[in-house]
Amino acid sequence: MRRKIIFGGTVVLVLLLAAAGIFTFLRQPDPQQMVMLGLENISKADSFAYSLTQKQAVQGQERLLSMISGYKSGENIHLQGQLAGSEVEMIKIGEVLYNKDPFSKEWIKFDDISVAQRVFLVELDPLATLQLKEIGEVMPSGEEVVNGKKCRVYTLKPSIQNQMIERFWTDFEYKLFITKSTKTVSKAEVKAKNKETGEPMTIVLEFKEIGKKISIQPSENTR
Fold first, then answer.
1. Whole-model pTM?
2. Mean pLDDT for the chain?
């Protein structure tokens, strides 16, 4: 009798665990829809702080291509960091651009943004990395915590829209971290290969202060 009770209890426990597993699986959001929503929400965000680090391997040695941090508030932008070994800092207020000279440290004001400057700003736009033509198959990759917030993690191999990146790199693989509470991309890790050498490239992109009030003002020391 005792064996039957133990056996019956074990069967019930197994069934309960199986039911819990099925329930958890069914509760998971559709991966493709979640990725599309996460990308849409960050692209619509009126303001955020961000950091972007891009590295590539050259003859087996890892090299830093760019390390940029910045703020976006509406159409206004403030970014600074390293780009191809040079210091860069820019502030865009409406249609006025302020560029900090890396040698004199003075700010130079441009009342009319040139086509070249506009293209340059687009290339440095963190959202440009997240503009995808086709998402492709999306695979759930568990959960992680990013900046203290729980995120669902997804991996995908999309085709991308950024022509500047696509010109030199191929075989893109994205790992997106989407905050569970806001359904917004808070981090992205991108891997690709150089079209000529096949050596790897990585981009790590993080967003903070999404939707918060951010004030961007020009420097008083301008000419």
1. 0.83
2. 86
